[in-house]
Design goal:
By secondary structure, the chain is mainly α. The chain has one domain (12-142): Four Helix Bundle (Hemerythrin (Met), subunit A) (Up-down Bundle), CATH 1.20.120. It is 83% helix and 0% strand. The protein is built from four helices and no strands. The protein has helices at residues 14-35, 39-67, 73-96, 99-142. The chain is elongated. It starts with 13 loop residues before the first helix and ends with a helix. Bound molecules: fe (ii) ion (2 copies). One fe (ii) ion is lined by residues 16, 20, 57, 61, 121, 125.
Length: 143
Amino acid sequence: MTLEWKKDFLTGLYWQDEQHKELFKRADRFVRAVDERHAALEALELFAFLDEYIVTHLDAEEQAMTTHNYPAVIEHLAEHTAFIEDVARLKKQLTTTNAADCSIALSALSTRVCDWFFDHITTVDKEMGEFIRKAEARTRAKA
Ligand SMILES: [Fe+2]
Ligand SMILES: [Fe+2]
């Protein structure tokens, strides 16, 4: 399986789109590795990326939502928290699992990252990004 980037994924908010593209690239590499059965090493690289993504990207979105009084901030952050918890659980599962269960854990990680892309980034992030982009444009127009 490969993931295909679509223009439709763009929110129009430059920094958010650039960070989403990077996650997409990493997720695609991991999903291919799962298919090709050499995903264990790739999973470690994906977790290293996700550790940073959680700190930089999710914090940047939280900051933008707070700054511009985004109305659905509570619901949005609840999805971030669920993702952070799932990544931590999957990381623990993969580092403690035996070889026989490893492919199940890798598939679970692949599914969660793909779901994150299609159920969060292309929906709620897109709504939020469009809201922030318009709010920033209004702020610039007033200055
Ligand atoms: Fe995002
Ligand atoms: Fe988000």
